[in-house]
TrEMBL record:
KW Iron (keyword) present: no
Transmembrane intervals: 21-48, 68-91, 112-138, 150-169, 251-271
Name of the protein described by the UniProt record: Metal-binding membrane protein
Classification via Pfam families: PpoB2 (PF09948)
Length: 274
C-alpha cells in the first residue's frame, strides 16, 4: 500500500509540473507574440499610410518597402501574420489545447508535450494558409485600387458592407456549428489514437473550425485596419468572449447586432462624405 501511495503521489506531482509548464509556455508565447505585434504595428504606423481617393488610407502592410522584392514582402507579411494570429488566438485556443492534453494524459510527459505541440502547429498552419491567401488578395486589390481611382472611392462603402455582412453571419446556423466545435473540442471528436499523425490532423481540424468561425471577424480586421492595435484588441476580445463565455451563442449574436449597426453607420458616413 505504501508503494502504491508513493507511486500515486509521484504521478500527481508529475502531472502538476506538466500543467504548470503548459500554462507557463502558453503565457510566455502569448506575451512574446503580443509584444512583437505591438512593436511591428508601431513601426509600420510610423512610416505613414497612403491617402486614397474616397477619404481612406491604405495600410503599408499591402505595399512593398523600397528595394524589397515580392518574395521578401510575402515572407515579411506571413511572418508577422503568424505572430499576430498566435497572439490573438492563444487566449481562446489554450482551453482547446488543454482539453486535448487531458484526453491523452496517459502518455509519458515528453511525448505528451510533443503531441500537444503538434496540435498547436497544425492549428496555426491553417491560419498561415489563410494569411497567404490574405496577402495575395490584399496585394491584388491594392494594386487595382492604386490604378483605378473609381474603385478606390468605393472602398469605404464596401468596408461598411463587409462589417455589416460579418455581423449578419453571427446569426447563422453555420456560425453556431463552428462556434460549438470551438467551444467544446470533444463535441467535434477528440482523437482516439495517440500518435503524431492523429495529433497533426486534430490540430488541422481545430484550425479549420476556428478560422471558419472567425472568418467574419477576421475580414473586419483586414478591411478596417490590419495594423490598428485597437481593431486587433477588439477582434481578439470578441473571439475570446464568444468562445469562453457561458452563453457563447448569445454573445455571438450580440456581437453580430453591434457589427450590423456599425456597418450601417460606416455606409451612411461613406455615402454622406462622398
Amino acid at each position: 500500500m505504501a508503494h502504491l501511495g508513493a507511486t500515486w503521489r509521484r504521478e500527481v506531482s508529475r502531472r502538476m509540473i506538466g500543467e504548470r509548464a503548459f500554462f507557463a509556455v502558453t503565457a510566455l508565447l502569448f506575451a512574446a507574440c503580443a509584444t512583437v505585434t505591438v512593436v511591428w504595428c508601431t513601426s509600420m504606423s510610423a512610416t505613414g499610410e497612403m491617402p486614397m481617393p474616397g477619404g481612406w488610407t491604405m495600410s503599408m502592410a499591402w505595399m512593398r518597402m523600397c528595394g524589397q522584392t515580392w518574395p521578401g514582402a510575402a515572407a515579411s507579411f506571413i511572418g508577422m501574420w503568424v505572430v499576430m494570429m498566435v497572439g490573438m488566438m492563444l487566449p481562446s485556443f489554450t482551453p482547446m489545447l488543454w482539453r486535448y492534453r487531458q484526453a491523452v494524459a496517459g502518455t509519458r510527459e515528453w511525448r505528451l508535450g510533443w503531441l500537444t505541440a503538434l496540435v498547436g502547429v497544425g492549428y496555426f498552419f491553417v491560419w498561415t494558409a489563410f494569411g497567404i491567401a490574405a496577402f495575395m488578395l490584399g496585394n491584388a486589390f491594392a494594386a487595382l485600387a492604386m490604378q483605378l481611382p473609381a474603385l478606390a472611392r468605393t472602398v469605404p462603402i464596401v468596408a461598411g458592407a463587409i462589417v455589416m455582412l460579418a455581423g449578419a453571419l453571427q446569426f447563422t446556423a453555420w456560425k453556431a456549428h463552428h462556434l460549438a466545435c470551438c467551444r467544446d473540442a470533444s463535441g467535434c471528436g477528440l482523437p482516439l489514437r495517440v500518435d503524431g499523425a492523429t495529433a497533426w490532423r486534430h490540430g488541422l481540424r481545430l484550425g479549420l473550425h476556428c478560422s471558419t468561425c472567425c472568418a467574419g471577424l477576421t475580414a473586419i480586421l483586414l478591411v478596417t485596419g490590419l495594423m490598428d492595435l485597437r481593431a486587433m484588441a477588439a477582434v481578439t476580445a470578441a473571439i475570446t468572449v464568444e468562445r469562453l463565455a457561458p452563453a457563447g451563442e448569445r454573445v455571438a449574436r450580440a456581437i453580430g447586432a453591434i457589427l450590423v449597426v456599425a456597418g450601417l453607420v460606416l455606409i451612411v458616413r461613406a455615402v454622406g462624405s462622398g
